[in-house]
Amino acid sequence: MAFTSSPWHGSQNAAFWRTLFILHCISTLVFTTISTPPEDPVKCVSGNTNCTVTNSYGVFPDRSTCRAANVTYPTSEAELVSVVAAATQAGQKMRVTTRYSHSITKLVCTDGTDGLFISTKFLNDTVRVDADAMTLTVESGVTLRQLIAKAAKVGLALPYAPYWWGLTVGGMMGTGAHGSSLWGNGSAVHDYVTEIRMVSPGSANDGFAKVRVLSEITTPNEFNAAKVSLGVLGVISQVTFKLQPMFKRSLRYVMRNDSDFGDQAITFGKKHEFSDFIWLPSQGKVVYRMDDRVAVNTSGNGLFDFLPFRSQLSAALAIIRSSEETQERFRDGNGKCAGATLISSTLFATAFGLTNNGIIFTGYPVIGSQNRMMSSGSCLDSLQDGLITACPWDSRIKSEFFHQTTFSVPLTQVKSFINDIKSLVKINSKSLCGLELYYGILMRYVTSSPAFLGKETEALDFDLTYYRAKNPLTPRLYEDFIEEIEQIALFKYNALPHWGKNRNLAFDGVIRKYKNAPAFLKVKEAYDPTGLFSSEWTDQILGIKGNATIVKDGCALEGLCICSKDAHCAPAKGYLCRPGKVYKEARVCTRLDDDISVIQPLRY
């Protein structure tokens, strides 16, 4: 039996979401500074032995458990050298973990159970500040928040960075993390780095560990390999940034219909230095971020404390998750759309967390110093409160649980890609409301990078966040639409997946999209010839051995594979493998009642 929503049911949903979200916003504002911070991603049975590691969301894309025999917490480069030397001499596999472990993919995992986790949690000091040269050298475990604050103390600013400040310097370098801009050297953090100190395995003559000092001038090939390293070259010890004099930003959000969005997306980034978009395709709306650099003496003390990154009341998070599970169970598309409309309108009305003076929002433009406007994440900056409040995705409570599909589409292809998504919305206007429950499609500008595994061209990065079931064999409402968008981007437009996000299917054959991949692999072979810092996952995504996809019954439901037969979906629940609706080359899990084409068998 197919469940549908009546108009009465839809109005009840709207009232429910309105009441719940108002309470949720109140709790977000009230509990901003008393949230429980995340726990350490590494847990051990006894001391620092017999350990597991996970990401900040508690589950990897394939739901596997990553284990190691030991974890170590070096506090200096000298200790780090000793750790790497001992493991190299013993032939022990190693991987680096960070303070919050925000990469969704399995980049922290080592193979088997005998490996070593090297945590940079206590490699968190500032090494050197040169205000005259405008450089700042920090250890790799320093968080983005700490980096921003330290630079600001000497009147300097990092020009571009991710919006979430819980990332570490080493983590950003490992995955190519970025903000949004087509200006300057682009929005990638690694393109504002001038020197990297890295500890790699060494020969017996080296004492089994080698400290490498890399820069664009002295070691250009090695430097461009290390700028986005995936952790396979060794452990980054220290990073030197080239900063800029402090400046201010003037920001306003404007919501428009998306009728001309394809054209606007191509040109808007040239008009505003820090521009981005939040696209609400089911509502036919786009939120434009009009964000520009202004002189440091411009009046204004604005602050951007993004509402979804603030502390949240755990009870409210549990209710929201339960309501989403109910909508999935009863296939309540109307309920999702009602909630999405309320969430997007409320976020827009509250300026997404912007305030003109750090306390209240009084109107646009909001003008503030770069260190107060570029990144946020106040749910990390808090005391223990027994999990009464937490970051919204904290896996210790019933909270947000989602997939993230993130890829960069070449700017020359963006208009066509946007039109393809619009075509899907025309087929079913409710199909993408689930994305809008997670604030919509975030779109950020990136540029080509000299980093061997960095971006290849000017592009728009599309960030899709959406519901994930606790049971891996449970299909999602309208999952075929999101699967088709994913495949359109990756295969029709040759989009590059974000190294630290995405589901497995995004990485099959991905290394062939990078023209400098051979140069990267050459450096990898020189730095770590026995692959002590490599893992099964890194070998798969680098095209060295095996495939990132996992083919088994139900594998397409969580993006472990692209379906090629019905068993890869959920045939017992009416989900069969069928061609895409717009991109016919796609293969997606479509529900029997949703698509008339399923009465015709698919020819494999």
Automatic annotation (TrEMBL):
PROSITE patterns named in the record: FAD_PCMH
**Which top-level enzyme class is recorded in the Swiss-Prot or TrEMBL entry?**
oxidoreductase
Question: Which keywords describe this protein according to UniProt?
Answer: Ascorbate biosynthesis, Oxidoreductase, Signal
Which Pfam families does the UniProt record give? Answer: ALO (PF04030), FAD_binding_4 (PF01565), GULLO2-like_3rd (PF22906)
Question: Which reactions are catalysed by this chain?
Answer: L-gulono-1,4-lactone + O2 = L-ascorbate + H2O2 + H(+)
Q: Check the UniProt entry and state the signal peptide residues, or none.
A: 1-32
Q: Quote the pathway field.
A: Cofactor biosynthesis; L-ascorbate biosynthesis
Cofactors: FAD
The Enzyme Commission number assigned here is 1.1.3.8
Which InterPro entries does this chain map to? ALO_C, FAD-bd_PCMH, FAD-bd_PCMH-like_sf, FAD-bd_PCMH_sub1, FAD-bd_PCMH_sub2, FAD-linked_Oxidoreductases_BP, GULLO2-like_C, GULO_Plant
Family matches, as NCBIfam families = pln_FAD_oxido
Name this protein carries in UniProt: L-gulonolactone oxidase
Which species is the source of this protein?
Camelina sativa (False flax)
